[in-house]
Amino acid sequence: MPKIILVTHQKGGVGKSTLTFNLAQNISKNANVVVLDFDLQGSLSQLKELVTDFEIISFKDEIDTILNLDHDFIFIDTPPYLSNHLLKLIAIADLILVPTKAGILDLLAIKGTLELIEDEQKIANTLIIFNMIKANTTLTIDILIGLEEYNVKIANTHISDLVAFTRSVLVKGVGIDKNAQKQLDNLTKEIVTKLI
Q1: Helix (H) or strand (E) holding 191
Q2: Is the pTM of this model over 0.85?
């Protein structure tokens, strides 16, 4: 039975697609991985021809067919708005990743996403990830305090705003950037541990 990892946040620009790509790339070193692109922009689907370590599918089938896919891990990249598929995707997900920047608007926007997850009783299966974090930012602590009211697990690993992550989709991963690879490895361990 595949492990389904949903990457969602109703706010655009929080790095959902790039994070999905990098996690899929990292996990594909040891497992059979597919990424389902539900975003109509098709950011990840446009990379299909460049990716060799895992499969990317622009998904247009019935959601129930996801459970029949023959992969170890299924990543689902969602659009930056609340689509009518989201409740069904939350329901079938083994783990829900909610990437967010450390900004006030991001904190305000996350509320709607977390309420949907709570309605489906999947808060225990949810992990908030601070993504694209600028060096030496003090806002992260303020946002952490603001997120406490939701009782959602926050990843210990924060993903920095590094060039290696930005260009990773073109060069099939973070390459030789040891800091980026360490962050990605640590986050991957957290995700796999939460799935066990």
Answers
A1: helix 178-195
A2: yes
Gap between the Cα atoms of 148 and 17, Å rounded: 26
- Reported as a single tens digit per residue, the pLDDT across 111-123 is 989 999 999 999 9
**Mind listing the domains of the chain with CATH numbers?**
3-195 (3.40.50.300)
DSSP state of 160: B
Pull the structure tokens for residue 27.
């996990």
pLDDT at 82 over 70: no
Place of tokens 């957290």: 190
If one compares 144 and 67, the residue with the highest pLDDT of the two is 67
Q: Which of 136, 135, 120, 182 is nearest to 156 (CA)?
A: 182
How many CB atoms within 10 Å of residue 14?
25
pLDDT surpasses 70 at 139: no
Burial 129-144 (b: 16+ CB within 10 A, else e): bbbbbeeebebbeebe
C-beta atoms surrounding 67 within 10 Å: 11
